[in-house]
Each structure stands twice: as C-alpha cells, then as structure tokens.
Amino acid sequence: MAAWMSLTSIGRLAFEPRQRELERQDRDGGAVQRETLRSLIDKAKDTSYGREHGYATIRSYDDFARQVPLNTYEELKGDIDRMRHGEHDILWPGLVKWYAKSSGTTADKSKFIPVSQEGLHKAHYAGGFDALAFYLKNHPESRILDGKSLILGGSHVPNYDVKDAIVGDVSAIMLENVNPLVNLVRVPKKETALIADFEEKRDRIARETLDQNITSLTGVPSWMMSVLTRVLELSGKAHLEEVWPNLEVFFHGGVAFTPYRRQYQRLITSPKMHYMETYNASEGFFGIQNDPGDPALRLTLDFGIFYEFIPMDEFGRENPTVVPLWGVETGRNYAVVISTCCGLWRYILGDTVRFTATNPCKFVITGRTRHFINAFGEELIIDNAEQGLAWACSQTGAEVLEYTAAPVFMDEAARCRHQWLIEFSREPDDLDAFTDLLDQRLQEINSDYEAKRFKDITLQKPELVQARPGLFHEWMKQRGKLGGQNKVPRLSNSRDYIEPLLALNSTSTGI
Fold this sequence. Notes:
Elements: H1 7-27, H2 29-44, H3 48-52, H4 61-67, H5 73-84, E1 98-103, E2 110-115, H6 117-138, E3 148-151, E4 166-168, H7 170-177, E5 186-187, H8 190-193, H9 198-209, E6 214-219, H10 221-235, E7 249-252, H11 261-267, E8 274-281, E9 284-288, E10 297-299, E11 305-311, E12 323-324, E13 333-340, E14 347-358, E15 361-368, H12 382-396, E16 399-408, E17 417-426, H13 431-445, H14 447-453, E18 463-466, H15 471-478, H16 498-505
Parallel strand pairs: 1-4, 3-5, 3-6, 6-7, 7-8, 17-18
Antiparallel strand pairs: 1-2, 8-9, 9-10, 10-15, 11-12, 11-13, 13-14, 14-15, 16-17
Helix pairs in contact: 1-6, 9-10, 12-13, 13-14
C-alpha cells in the first residue's frame, strides 16, 4: 500500500483537531483547570457528598478549598463502600459499577477506586488518545496504525466483587469497556489479556503475537520485559526487531524506566525504536511525555481531573499550604491532590512531583509520599535513588533489574546505614566501587543525605546486598502481585519489605 494511502496517514486527520486544542491549552493551563473545577462541582452538587459540603454555594476555588476537606482513602472509604453496594449519587451522580483495585492502606489490604462511566472515558481512555496524538505529531514518518499494539494489562478479581460492583485492575476495566473497533488493532485477544496467572498469560501472549505485525507496545516496563523475553525464547531470535520488524514505540508507565532502558536497548537494537513515558494510575491519567528530547511530562489538563499540590516540606502538618495549578513553583517537591469525575474529592494521591515549567505545565515524578527513607533526617526520595543508580551504572557498565532499600537503624554505638538489595541484569565488576559511586552521587544531589553522611558521624556508608536472579519476581509471585499495575516498593522508611526479601534471598530456591 502506498504511504499516502496507509491507515496511519488517514488516521492522522482524526488527531489534528486535538493536537491544535492541546497547543491552545499550553498557553493557559490555569484557565482549563478553573473550567474543570466548575464542571466537577456543578455535576456533583446534588450528590450526597456535594450536599454535605455545600457544592451549590461554591463560586470559586477559595470556596472549594474552604468547604471541602483534604481526604485520604480512609476518609472516603465509607462512601465508596456504599457505592459498591449499589447506592446511587454518593460521591458521583448515578450508579458506579466498576472499581479499580489498588494497593492497600494501613487498615486495608486493598483500595477500591471508583471508575465512573464519565471517568472511564475522560480520565482514562483520553490519555491513550492524547499519547498517540503527541507521538504522531513528533514522528511524521510513523506507520504505527498500520500494525497492531501489544497492550499488557491486569485482570478481574472476582473475590472482591459484590452484587452491584465489579473489581479489577484498571487496565482490565478499560479492556472490558473499550469500543469493539479497538480490538481490531490491539493484541492479545481479550480472553488472554484477562488471565489472572501472569506466567500463563505471558506465555499465551508470546505465542499469540509471534506472527503479528506489532508496531507498538504499551505497559509496565518490568512486566513487558518478561513477555518480550518469552517472545525471543519462542522465536529463537536475538533481537525483537527480527520478530517484529515494524515495531517503533513503547508507551511505558507505572515505574521509572531508567533501570530498564539499557535492557530494552539490548533487546531492541533498531534505530527507529522510540520510548514514550506516560503517567497513569487507578485514579486517572495524569501526564504524557510530549517532547522526545525532554523527560518531563505534560500535565493532562482537561481529563475531568482538578489538581492541587501540597509542598512536601509541609506534608503531614495539620493545616498544610495547598495550592492549585496556577500557584505552583518550579523546582519545589509537591504531593499531588486530585478531585475527579470518578468521585474522588481533594484526594491525596500518594505521588510526589516537581514542576520543571508552568507554561506549558510540565513535571517529573519524584516518588511517593510513603515510599522514601527519612529515618535519620536524610529525606531520600525515589528520584534521588534513580539518579544515583543511573550514575553508578553509567560508570561501571552495570544494569539494575530491580531494587529496594531500607534503613538499618542505630546500634549501641549510634551507627546506622541504608541497606540496598539489588538484582542486576548485568553485574558490576566491583560491588564496592558501585556502592561508592551510588553513595557519592546521592551526596551530590541531596544535601540532607550529604549532611548525615559527613565523616560517617551519623549515617554510615550504604550496604549493598546482591539479590539472586529472579528474587523479586519470586517475591511478587508469593504475594500474588505479578503483572498489572503491581510494582516493587523501591524505598521504605521501615524494614517491612526488605526483611522478607532478604530471607527469601538466603534460600537457594529459584523461580
């Protein structure tokens, strides 16, 4: 088929209006967000939550911030439970049938995030459309729509279902509700995509896609890597472009891509391969890398999500400062707060970000409000850890597959340290040298860490424990968390994660 008649060439026309609208939004993100807030308040004013908090009287952002409290999942859990049991008009108008299962809280094993029909389309599907719009604009040579997309997701979990509600991974919910026409351009088939056993799923996916014309990949880097490795095993090929010669892009999200980049570059050596980060979660689709030369993400502004931000140096205070998008400053670390068309109101998401620009609104993900190490005042966040590991890898030729880190608390001599458990896909020649480089880089980018490391007085040199091959996969499997949105906790202020991993690492059992 001639290039001018390709499906991609025809499909581009459908994306041009959206591309122009996205350019307009970049000039005044604050106006788009004010409009979003007005719409959310108007639609929810007659819900139980809206009446309780006087939504009908809200005329401005200041009214909203004054009348509606900040919420964690625990504060909204009672209302969400009512919704799951069939009550209408609680947090969002009508009956909400679908709930995305997410990692739990202190009090509960799992969270159930409501996914309304409007939220499904505005806060989730719209993200994929915009990612494709940006990609096509940046790559005029693309033929992505002439082939199929391998989309890797999760499954339903019926044991959590109640009479009026269905629970599943958000990707499974999207698959169940997607326009049937989309299934013509995506693989694997629906029955395979929804298999709960990840090891069975990866084998089935690999077999189903071997002879397909795959042009794009979408999923979490760690789980996608497992599937692609199986594809190569079955095909007997050394590189993925030998299996799928027209593969051109991986839309990835869920975990930082830095530890996986070199592994993907080994698997896919084609110079036409591209990587594009997205920021999507059970609660919504929040960001897209719209510039291949800039790792920062563009904030999604009109997805039925209103954003607020708490400076991390005030997070945890009784009455912290909270600012809307038009009040953020570049360079500051913020906790993200969202109000959505799924019924989450001033909900503390748990992620932290730092803005790199405000027109357009662009940011980098810096970590989690809970996943950090601050046992000794060092305030180590995931962004620091990723930078430190990337530097140590670049200097030694090592490649990190998975890792977690936690404090080793003070002994009788007031000596303490961080303990890193790292599984390498390519080991450094000298573990001590790797540890020194990691430690050095962390001191360079985190002044609090540097101060605590000064002359080894408070914080000692990090301890690196090498994980045996397959350790993290085995641990996640034991916890029933293979595939989907599940990810390895990178940093913890306690030893709740690292201790069972260390115990498992001391055994000789493999996968």
